[in-house]
Amino acid sequence: MGTAEGWLVTWLITGAGGMLGTDLTLRLRDQDEHVVPLSRDRLDLRDASSVRAALREHRPATVVNCASWTAVDDAETHEAEALEINGSSVSVLADTCADLGATLVQISTDYVFEGLGSDPYAEDSPTAPLNAYGRTKLAGELAALATDSYVVRTAWLYGAHGANFVRTMMRLAAERETVDVVDDQYGQPTWTGDLSTQIIRLVKSDAPAGIYHGTNAGRTSWRGLAQEVFALLGLDPERVRPTTSDKFPRPAPRPSNSVLGHDRWSKAGMPPMRHWRDALHAAWPELARNA
């Protein structure tokens, strides 16, 4: 994916105030890249004219769209609003990037799959979202792919710069003797630091446009992740007690299997992301500082 001749090599990050957007901005700055981080208060993706104006002003070589409606349960009753952010706005972003010769990286989700199987989902597996959030994110994928952009699906994100499951478990470990965590949903905990590095590597490669799965390797349940957090805190992992999803009913159904395959990375000549447990251990000092 090339850079238009004569342009500054600029990265523009939408949703830059979020967990992934923050880590991506920090890592780009660590590499002395020119980055324009636009949080929601600086760029509302629902305003098409503002989106076009921002891209024309900054003339980025790469746009990474980290902005998203992420309130999964609320999307069930506000699907039109979620679609506006997760789908319709991506069409404007993708078309503007195409007009200006910029590369678009659209961040998507494991929720585009139904999650009823047991095997990892390949990049070209059929999509079948179980909930409104997944449907709206799939609309964003299709809009991005129509302009030969990158789509990076991720899942179970955690990091030091936002609310997430890992930080919640760190807090509950200090507040409760035991915690009950579901043990029948499986996925890949993914550190935003590793995902940021992988996105940068993807854009700087000669990898073809299309779908890539940006999750750390391996698989575990939510309980397995919580137990690893307790162990890193020096606590007994058995304080995390197993329970089932039906004990925590939610408006939006969740996929039971969110494990994603990573074959496309090796086909593009790049290594996949490391094992989720190794990533969590590497992230731990930063997580502990920001607890």
Automatic annotation (TrEMBL):
From the Swiss-Prot or TrEMBL record, give the protein name.
dTDP-4-dehydrorhamnose reductase
Q: Which Gene3D superfamilies match?
A: NAD(P)-binding Rossmann-like Domain, UDP-galactose 4-epimerase, domain 1
For this protein, the record's InterPro entries field holds:
dTDP_dehydrorham_reduct, NAD(P)-bd_dom_sf, RmlD-like-bd
Q: Which pathway is this protein engaged in?
A: Carbohydrate biosynthesis; dTDP-L-rhamnose biosynthesis
Task: Write one Gene Ontology MF term.
Answer: dTDP-4-dehydrorhamnose reductase activity
Keyword Transferase in the entry? The reply is no
Domain (RmlD-like substrate binding): give its ranges: 12-284
Q: Which controlled-vocabulary keywords does the entry list?
A: NADP, Oxidoreductase
Residue ranges for the region (Disordered) are 241-264
Pfam (any one): RmlD_sub_bind
Q: Which PANTHER family match?
A: DTDP-4-DEHYDRORHAMNOSE REDUCTASE, METHIONINE ADENOSYLTRANSFERASE 2 SUBUNIT BETA
Q: According to the UniProt entry, what is the EC number of this protein?
A: 1.1.1.133
Functional note: Catalyzes the reduction of dTDP-6-deoxy-L-lyxo-4-hexulose to yield dTDP-L-rhamnose.
Record's keyword annotation contains Transport: no
What GO cellular component term, any one, is given? cytosol
**Per the UniProt entry, what is one GO biological process?**
dTDP-rhamnose biosynthetic process
Family the entry assigns: Belongs to the dTDP-4-dehydrorhamnose reductase family.
